Amino acid sequence: MPENYVFHVLVTGDIAHDGEQFAGVTLNVQQFAAPWTRLTMLRRTWVMIVRGIRMARKEGIDVVISYDPLTLGFIGVLVKLFSGAKLVVEVNGHIRDAKDLSLAGGKVGFLRRKLFNLVGSLSLHMADCVKILNRRQYEEWQTILSRKKVVMFHDYVPTSQFVLSERDDCYLYCLGYPFYRKGVDILLEAFAIIQQEFPDIRLVIMGHCREPELSRWKARARGIANVEFHKPVPYDEVADYLGTCTVLAVPSRSEGMGRVFIEAMASGKPCVGTRVGGIPNVIADGRSGFLVNPEDPQDLADKLRILLADKSLRQRMGKVGRHIAETTLSDRQYVLNFQKMMDILLDDSSPCRGICFNGFAQVDSRPDR
Length: 369
Fold this sequence. Notes:
About 40% of the residues lie in helices and about 15% in strands. By secondary structure, it is α/β, with parallel strands linked by helices. A six-stranded parallel β-sheet has the order 10-9-8-11-12-13, with helices on both faces. A five-stranded parallel β-sheet has the order 4-5-6-7-14, sandwiched between helices. Helix 1 runs parallel beside helix 2 (about 70-85), helix 7 crosses helix 12 (about 295-310) and helix 10 (about 260-265) crosses helix 13. The chain is globular. The relative contact order is 0.11.
């Protein structure tokens, strides 16, 4: 991050890391409450509110950044009110009416939807700047965001840590969870359509899916050859899967951005995703991969067929994707975009309202010559 900034990060996790410092960042770790109950969640939230306010006052914090408009957004609002700091709220999913939660299989009743909308509206209303990932998020909250400073650019992905790979172990890779929101059922249908045409291709599905849900997905895949469900691996090992897959395919029903697409592109692999949320901001359709219609296994099968049948096309798309991941969507560009967001936030004379900066607008899918 910019060297002229000092960061304090307030998180829940392993208390052993509390107070650790690196590259201008100090970790402030609150012990994770286990087992999870509503009472422990409320207690944890209260402790984080108190600690956040104390930290902001003691350290003279200028800007508070909340990762989401819900619990963390509410904490950010209170820290702002009691410290005088400016507030940035990030919107990383589609939370209005608890959309993402409902697609994750959670129980979403009338009161929960109203609570999501109420807390989200409060956080965004109190924000001095809002960071979003796609235009659909802006439309969902337009009545508030049209009066706010809004910036739109990608979330941080350590693209420089991914190595360009031409290795191909003959498998489609789907990484993510919840499986229903990631469209795993659609992918299984599409793979069943093309599997006999490409008998050597496997479908590897990976995500934090536990029993008994995992058994239900395995039952759904029964009868389709070469489908494998893999246990999740540490982040460092994800690069090995991305570097050896043939194509990354994640036909999501909802997606704020889809960082796994950027990771795959950084590995030189073509991607197939849906025309939802922020995926079209990441995949250059027909150049670094293909966009398909959501809920359409035939369209997905057709695009996978094209890629699996043409190695040279996969290599060309991988090269384009690698170029995008090294430029517009790189970790270095994220730092520049972050600086731009801070400039917009701290410029009290700026009349800009609505989307003041769009970091995706500069996507250049042409590889280096």
